[in-house]
Specification:
Blueprint lengths: L1 E2 L10 E10 L2 E8 L6 E9 L3 H8 L4 E6 L6 E6 L8 H6 L13 E8 L11 E8 H13 L3 E6 L1 H12 L5 E8 L2 E8 L2 E8 L3 H4 L4 H25 L5 E7 L2 H12 L6 E3 L17 H14 L1 H4 L1
Parallel strand pairs: 2-5, 5-9, 10-13, 13-14
Antiparallel strand pairs: 1-9, 2-3, 3-4, 6-8, 7-8, 10-11, 11-12
Helix pairs in contact: 4-8, 6-7
Length: 311
């Protein structure tokens, strides 16, 4: 999560979050509240970007804290050794250490640091962390129109953490979870434990290749997904031997699910289960989300809206 305190003076609002993801001329909006048994999605809509101000007024979204999602390519996320300074000084301590690792000037970046908790499981082990950085101008370009439209924007988040929030719903007690989700540009694999992000990997494979009529291309794509997933799980096992991955949750378009499931099952040592948000979230107010394809489309924005439940 990137702290917006340096960019905007924002008023805290009532509990609950609305998440926004802007894609060109469209925007996805999701609002989640605490339910009696499961977190309840009360709104999930695709609207025109130009309609964001009117939608906020009609749906009384001005009463909710808002979070906006950066898109892949708009930020960098790096795994580093945590500096040996107080936690509140991590960001400033790492700022100059990463200047040669970023494709944009560190002087014009917004940064935040996320701890990777290992001390209670492996005492004496070097503390690790994720540093997230984005050009300030890109963050402002995303955030300013939403603030101007009247949304009470409190944070800018990234897909890795949004997916971590979804994965936390499917974790088994004291077991790590692998979560592999696809969109049109490829796949994101995250590994979480006790609701914390421990590892991630982006797999750059066009989803269209899995549906290709070219059998060679199709098989090469499936093999690459399986191989990169296997390597990530193997590396995770070596790095975090004190936790066990017991299953992989797969979120993929229905048309490609069977092929992906088969390719992964032939290469992985963990069982694979299909993502079913209805088992973890109350979808009664948004029945269209019962469609697996719609679930997949809204997955990042749903994860971002779950931030309060993941805290």
């Amino acid at each position: 999560m990137l702290d917006l305190a340096k960019l905007f003076s924002l008023k805290r609002t009532v509990p609950g979050w609305v998440a926004l993801q802007v894609n060109g001329e469209d925007a996805l909006i999701c609002r989640i509240v605490a339910g009696s048994e499961l977190p309840r999605i009360v709104q999930a809509r695709r609207i025109r970007r130009a309609d964001l101000p009117a939608w906020r007024k009609d749906m009384v979204l001005s009463s909710c804290s808002a979070v906006a999602l950066l898109a892949p390519g708009q930020y960098a996320i790096l795994q580093l050794e945590a500096p040996v300074v107080p936690r509140e000084e991590w960001t400033s301590a790492l700022q100059w250490q990463v200047k040669d690792l970023l494709s944009f000037p560190v002087e014009g970046a917004v940064m935040d640091v996320l701890a990777i908790p290992t001390e209670q499981f492996a005492p004496g082990r070097q503390q690790q962390c994720f540093l997230v950085a984005a050009p300030t101008l890109d963050v402002q370009a995303l955030a300013t129109p939403l603030v101007d439209a009247g949304y009470a924007l409190q944070a800018v988040d990234i897909p890795e953490l949004a997916q971590r929030n979804i994965g936390a719903l499917f974790e088994e007690e004291n077991r790590a979870l692998a979560f592999l989700a696809f969109d049109t540009s490829g796949a994101l694999l995250t590994l979480s434990f006790h609701g914390e992000l421990y590892a991630f990997r982006r797999i750059e494979v066009p989803l269209a290749h899995i549906a290709s009529t070219d059998e060679c291309r199709r098989q090469q794509t499936l093999d690459r997904v399986a191989l990169e997933t296997q390597r990530t799980l193997d590396a995770f096992d070596r790095q975090y031997s004190f936790m066990t991955v017991t299953r992989l949750v797969l979120a993929a378009p229905p048309a490609q699910f069977v092929a992906l499931n088969e390719a992964l099952a032939n290469n992985l040592y963990v069982p694979i289960v299909a993502m079913d948000l209805a088992s973890q979230l109350d979808l009664s107010a948004v029945p269209e989300l019962l469609d697996p394809a719609v679930q997949l489309e809204f997955l990042p924005v749903i994860g971002a809206a779950l931030r309060a439940m993941a805290a």
